[in-house]
Amino acid sequence: MKRRKVLPVLCTGAVLVLGLSACTGNPQDPAPPTEAVELRMATHSEPTYRALGAIYADQLEQKGYQVTLLDPVADPAAQVLAGQADLVITSAGTAAHQVAPARPDTKNTDSAVLSREQSAKMIAGALPENVRALDASPGDLGSVLVMSRAQLALQDVEDYKELAQKCPSLKLAAPQASATLLREGLDGANCSAAKVEATTADRLPGMLRNAEVDGVVLSQADALIADEGFVSVAGTEALFDSEPVLALGDADVDEGAARAINEVTAKLDEDTLTAVSRMAHGTEPASAEDVAERWQWLSQ
């Protein structure tokens, strides 16, 4: 973390000629300037996380911090871990795998999926001394299986347990990491015959709209679910890692900045995350800066 040098105000004889009250320590006098703290924030290339980063940066700047946004990359948390950035906005599941890549021991459990509690435990036990994790959001960006109402009616199911019984006819699609977890979940439900296509995230909305597959895996906060009448299949959130939003920061990030960050995080419930996602991924996506400017409205 860098600090900009600011020259102190000195009480010289010349100043006294202009006005003795300038250095008398009167409580009504403006406080002397302090050093401006500069924070380098790593940013994500994924639009929702990039917008969230801009929101945090804007709120920090309103508290008097100077924030430099680094160029977006696919793995910004690595920059904080390497000391190349002071701060990154990420998710608990992602952070857990960054600092402790091996999944938890699943000998005595039914799933290798990371819950909110498991992620927190992994992060706390594996973070290097120079990095700290701040609060996690109440809302979750974790994945769910999404289908059309018509497809659910055609399959005659209401939740994942019933859906797994329709196994042989299912054709699903998901991003690579989610596809692995979906496959594990289906196998665990004796649904090995279901077809799971691993693809890129940008293809999934079109595949769902065009009924190329029965269902796709999307973020719980994806606005497409509510805005276009699709449905998240009840129970499928348990197939994927929990992904509440949190900040990873350099251990030297001061407490004032940490409080400002946690204040934003506390407002990131499901509705707010969906609103951010809607703006970042809409038919005419807003820039990250525009999303940040609307934070007060988004967080109501």
UniProtKB/TrEMBL annotation:
GO terms for molecular function: transmembrane transporter activity. InterPro entries: ABC_Gly_betaine_transp_sub-bd. One of its GO terms (cellular component) is ATP-binding cassette (ABC) transporter complex. Residues 1-22 form the signal peptide. It holds the Pfam family OpuAC. Residues 40-295 form the ABC-type glycine betaine transport system substrate-binding domain. PROSITE patterns: PROKAR_LIPOPROTEIN. Keywords: Signal. This is ABC-type glycine betaine transport system substrate-binding domain-containing protein. It comes from Glutamicibacter creatinolyticus. The lineage of its organism: Bacteria, Bacillati, Actinomycetota, Actinomycetes, Micrococcales.
